[in-house]
Amino acid sequence: MKRSLFGAALLLLLAPLAASARGILASPVQLGLAAPPGGAASDVVKVSSSKEESNRIRALLLDFTKDEMGRIQVLQDGENPRSCKGWLTLDRVDFLTPEQGSVEVRVTAHVPPEARGSYWALLALEVLPPPRSEGSGTGVVFIPRVAIPVIVTASGTEERSLQVEGFRAAYNGAEVVAELSVRNTGNAALLLQGAFTVEKPGAEGALPEEVASDEPDPQTAYPGARLRIRGKVNLPLPVPGLTAHAYFRFGPEPSQAVEASSEVEGLPSAPPEGGRLAPPAPAPAPPSGREK
Amino acid sequence: MRRPAALLALLLFLWPGAADARKPGKRGRPFDLPPALSVMDFGRVTPGEGEAAAAAEVVLGEEGPVEVFVSVPPAEETAPPLPLQGALALRAGNGPFTAVRPGTDLVLGRAEAPGGILRLEGRLSFPWETPPGGFRLVLRLRLGSAAEVPLTLRGEVAEVLLLEGVPGRWTPRKDFDPSREFSVDFGPQALRVKANVPWRLEARLAEDRGAEARTLFRQASLVFLGERGKTGALAPGRPLTLVQGGPTPSAGVSVSLVPVLVFSGLPEEGSLELPLEVSLVREGSP
Question: What is the pTM of this model?
């Protein structure tokens, strides 16, 4: 009996899927707010529909963290020790985007007097699905949304510090894949900008010569978190003895930079003659890194 | 050779002051563009979304009505080569807006009120593909034959993300036997992503959205099929990166998902929902 009821219910659920697509457009897609402890700061996110139609949008604040690869992980309340969710207010949380133009959602951060460094939360803007109706059956409710990280910094209290935890570079037959692992050991979010370079030894007494380089997109390192920055350096002509170098800045001061170097693994043992050599299988090597 | 000369003669006939006016500083009628007013700040401009507006004001000299000229540097002399990747129009006072192109000189109109304030207005828009970042364009402004002064247009092209899909319920399209393990293929679900920054599309089963979701979550999992078979399965508490990419063309890119709901046991009687959040986030910073 149970089986037949369930099956029947599902048969009634054969609703056509081809409803019109709805979209959400948000700009900017990240917010950085700074105010002294006890102060407030705000900014706006413009939200509009992707087509000339009105959409019902819900704005909500969530806790999140990012894993080493930069993927957002939504957390339950209380799981992020540096959450600023409770400090943030939105001037609208359930609204309609007009057929033309946009709606501004103002995000205001009230920084507590005791705050030190950076804190973060996620602003999620989602297109609400139609309300659930009686007998709507078993299935998946699909909720498209745009997620906007909000970082709030108690200005004047930042301690910026970054530590290299590892660096590895390996040749894969076409390019050198470099990966730098760093940990933010300060209390402020750090924007890391820099490059990976591949160098060959210079002539006797001379500095190494850069062969190729890659500049990954800037990355933000959250306080206490580990971050892996990856780059791919195109290397059309591999030769033995190349080294890889990583140099990333997190501030304007000379001391606000980290660097690391490592031999490139997996290079051919002899220079190519008239063609590219197949590389030997890469062998893992212990990373070497140093803080500048 | 004859034609330009004839045109110049015609121009001088119709506009006797043109020859002198084209020699900056010859007569040096003073006017003032105070530093605080000499900037048109467009603020944060969203590409692909209408026009942004800004204004500057000029304190006029004491001489009579004068033409208002603007010289626009060639595109290669702006760094970055903006904002004329988009559309820029200017007007003086209540005159009409005139489209501005790189490497051109324009007459915006006449300043009729000596000693007064001349308001200059700009309208600016950028196509979707414009990369984000600050822009700055320095025009040369001249009133009559007075010396040129710089007029700075500045602002920031904002980062933009767009996600389009069909919000609602994916429901099974055929009957099944709930007494055994089974899977439900919902068929291709099309999404569209537009971005002027690197992006990542993540899926998450929102088990925190209610008791029904938690109930079903224990009995089911969701996998996605790609062209080469299964691309990933959603595990509790962990997001799944569906696809990621760089800045898109203005039409965006299509992403096709084939979600398959796998029940590992007998679902409870009645109707149950499994909320699936598909989030578009900026890849990289922050």
Answer: 0.77
